Amino acid sequence: RDALFPDPNDQRHGWTPEQIASAVDSAEQFRFIEAETGSMAVAAACYPLCFAETSTVILGTKSVAQADSNFGLVSGSRLSESSLRRIESLQQAMGLYDRKGRIRDAFTFF
Question: Lowest CB count within 10 Å: 29, 52, 78, 110, which one?
Answer without folding.
Answer: 52
